[in-house]
Design brief:
mainly alpha
Length: 147
């Protein structure tokens, strides 16, 4: 069997396995983070988590498929390991960048939600107070004395 074909098979097996493992790990552990971003809405957080996992699979498996072609034919065992190390290293970097991109976007959404919650007062205004109602520390009222 041609060593180039062996390199293709090993590359595909390892890349697909890594993609599945990373996607499952991100899905399982990211669910809590997404729930906090979406203020505890479990149904929406499950839907967003599933959509993120599907997008992760599509992008990463698409990249793995596009990056399959080897530039040179693999001649010996040394060439096989060199080709695999370069290809798998690039796939791992792409997986890492995708993960960091997802976390960055979700963190931006979470920060926006926290800022919006901080702008809403915990108790609505109940009316206006006059300056005389503020107690002895208030500035003296201007107007006729003794009135």
């Amino acid at each position: 069997m041609d060593l180039t074909v062996v390199a293709y098979v090993i590359y595909l097996l390892i890349s697909v396995a890594l993609t599945i493992w990373v996607a499952r790990t991100l899905s399982r552990n990211g669910r809590v983070f997404i729930a906090s971003v979406l203020q505890g809405d479990e149904k929406l957080s499950d839907a967003v988590n599933h959509l993120l996992v599907v997008g992760f699979y599509l992008v990463n498996l698409g990249f793995v498929a596009l990056y399959l072609k080897a530039a040179d034919a693999v001649e010996n065992a040394r060439g096989l390991f060199e080709a695999l190390s370069v290809k798998l290293g690039v796939v791992l970097l792409v997986l890492g960048v995708m993960h960091l991109g997802n976390v960055w976007v979700l963190n931006k959404i979470r920060r926006r939600g926290v800022m919006e919650r901080q702008q809403i007062p915990p108790v609505g205004p109940q009316g206006w107070t006059s300056q005389a109602d503020q107690g002895p520390w208030a500035a003296p009222a201007t107007g006729p004395a003794g009135a």
